[in-house]
What we know:
The structure is a homodimer. By secondary structure, the first copy, chain A, is α+β, with helices and mostly antiparallel strands.
Amino acid sequence: MQRTNFGEITCSIARTMDVIGEPWSPLVLRNVYVGINRFDQIQQNLGISRKVLAERLRWLVERNVLERREYAANRYEYALTERGTELVGVLMVMVAWGDKWLAGEAGPPALYRHHACGGIGHVTLTCSNCGGPMSATDIDVLPGPGLTAPAAEPAG
Amino acid sequence: MQRTNFGEITCSIARTMDVIGEPWSPLVLRNVYVGINRFDQIQQNLGISRKVLAERLRWLVERNVLERREYAANRYEYALTERGTELVGVLMVMVAWGDKWLAGEAGPPALYRHHACGGIGHVTLTCSNCGGPMSATDIDVLPGPGLTAPAAEPAG
DNA sequence: CTGTTACGGTTCCCTCAGGGAACTCAACGG
DNA sequence: CCGTTGAGTTCCCTGAGGGAACCGTAACAG
């Protein structure tokens, strides 16, 4: 096998990477999210090769992240499914990190306005259990039920 | 240019992808995070090509995501920097998504125990401004100060 | 009812990145 | 002094990404 098949690794990171880990996939999702959802629009906005874009779209549709809709005769557009919409959360965290560490003096290229409070903010991570802040330094990683291979460390 | 340089796209997703978007990078970070932090350990745990692993580690060290430490004469190990530790948050959200949509009946391969509350949970996204839940459907994306190109839509 | 666009891809070729295995070099361990 | 281990490097091969051209259908223009 040329490229390793991430979907077969027992690790939720690897499995998620199997879906959106190919180069361009997150940017394609972002574009669909903000309303740039037709083939030529996406291709021009990103400067992605048409060949690769076609592959990515097909892949994401197969994984039920996007759906393909005929909005006119032989004209198609793409939309996020529920799965896909939840994936945008991953992108939002990427943006928070990129804004903090890579945006430089120019500041972030995009801002988020939260409907609930009307304010501009970014996303923070909290615990589903207690609601408190949850970062990489606040947790222990333990083996879970889906861990099949007898790995020395829990795989993800 | 063969591979598109994501770092030059004015978008925090693209910039973050420039750092950890190459295949394997997130899994390498995850391994270092859980303590699998030496060359051969990582290589064997992931089954990654030694050549690619060497490239990824060099790249991540250059971007200040990892640091390379000599723990014995000519023996090196890798550790997350502050930047890198914050990146693990992105991985945690990937895990939450993968656990929900891809783990199947076997359940998640790993669990998180939150130090603060002692419970097993996953990460949820909240607004830095009001503390309320924040998902892709709860926000508007607006142009930010770092947006240079006159794009029709805010780039990220 | 014949051009001309526009959209949504597909096909082709070329180059470079990933995979795999072998090799290197330095430091132990006995 | 020899074998082993860690940490890479080098080599070749294949296949994925980039670029540009091409194709089929539909709507429109004249």
